[in-house]
């Protein structure tokens, strides 16, 4: 009997919390359910080239902006009249020389702002262990002769 009550209590808690999860619809998709924004890859080092893809059904779309990306011209890609998808566009971008961290990329689709996160990675070290001390010299066949 206790097991049944425990399962019912847990199940009831999940049912009560489920509407809260569905209520958290992102504000950027209100009126634009097919709109999207992607940065590929979503993490890169300064100087790297990344691709931005977006979809928007609105008549007015602004070029994506970010404090860490220099974004090129937006160009239309793919079929523009597919009723199952939002008209798509793409742009290339270069990662600016900034501190490593997570930054925001955004664009406006009609009156709604869509945002995504982009991570700037730290510089890659050439070697994993830095050598220490002087290199060994000498040896060889000449060192063996008396």
UniProtKB/TrEMBL annotation:
Keyword Signal belongs to the record: yes
Keywords per UniProt: Signal
Ranges annotated as biased composition (Gly residues): 136-146
Region (Disordered): 127-146
Signal peptide: 1-23
Entry protein name: Lipoprotein
Species for this entry: Amycolatopsis tolypomycina
Classification lineage: Bacteria, Bacillati, Actinomycetota, Actinomycetes, Pseudonocardiales
